[in-house]
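Morning!

As promised:
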Amino acid sequence: MADAYVAIEGDRVIEARARAPGTARGELVFTTAYTGYEESLTDPSYEEQVLTFSYPLIGNYGVREERFESDRVHPRAAVAREMTDDVAEWLESEGIPAVDHLDTRDIVTEIRDEGAMKCGIAAGADVTEQDALDELHGCKHMSDHTDIGAQVSVDEVEVHNEGGDGATVALVDCGAKGSITESLVERDAEVHVFPYDASEDDVAAVDPDLLFISNGPGDPENFEQAGELVETYVGDVPLAGICLGQQVVANALGGETEKMEFGHRGVNQPVRDLRSNQVVMTTQNHGYTVADPGDKLDVTQVNVNDDTPEGLENDDLNIITRQYHPEANPGPHDSLGFFDDVLGMAGE
Ligand SMILES: NC(=O)CC[C@H](N)C(=O)O
């Protein structure tokens, strides 16, 4: 008998097996990644989402903290065809409901047909279908999480590699993956991690060589202050952005973003560089995209599958942004050169 339920839009309820108990709600999305479940589950970009793994077995190489991208699990719940005890126990210890033994192909097909949708989850011995439906009915649209930055950002400035020989980077933490800081520190940068709502004066105090807007959850339009920093510094300081960072930069410089039908999440998204004509395989996790880059930014890279902008640049203003995750955890590592390029703009 089922001891877990997933309720999706249209009030359809799917039966499952509870792997970690509890109730939760969030935007139902899927990733096609076959490795990197620890990285995905600790990626702050998944805040307020319920993550379905389309790969049928999740957890076959254990759970190791060194692969975490932040200090907690961010999706509100996890859904898999089969989840190992390691992962289930980890999620239970984090208080995150998890379910398996359901047809994840069915869920993926539903999302592909109908788009990313709200869902409710109830798992554990005492739950009912109605508990999952109640969660579904209480679920908000992603864009309505207007202060989502506060849920994922540092509260105070953190400095990494103080006194480092390289560039001074102001990284605006909109929900940054830890490996972005690591990639910069590995290249000798002194990284000042700022709260998502840092002011112009906060940033000016460190006299940065590079302003870097991180990845993060939800709608980029809800990160107004980061956009204001971009408007303030454009032309004076080189600018870089990853994922939500690309979207924030585009919005701030006269472009526009929009919600995609179900987004890109996985580790084998092909991206073509329009200048070199080279294709790289990339890690991705986004549900919004740049619909119009505005007149200050050129689209320099596109997704091979659907032509959406994957890279925006302005050589005169020293701006490079990427929609995918060049820090590449869990990989593939094709695009790590991005960090050399952005630090190159900063004079390194
Ligand atoms: N990984 C990210 O930064 C995601 C960006 C944004 N929240 C989106 O879904 O498009």
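Residues 45, 215-218, 243-244, 285-288 surround glutamine (CB under 6 Å).

Hope this helps with the figure draft.
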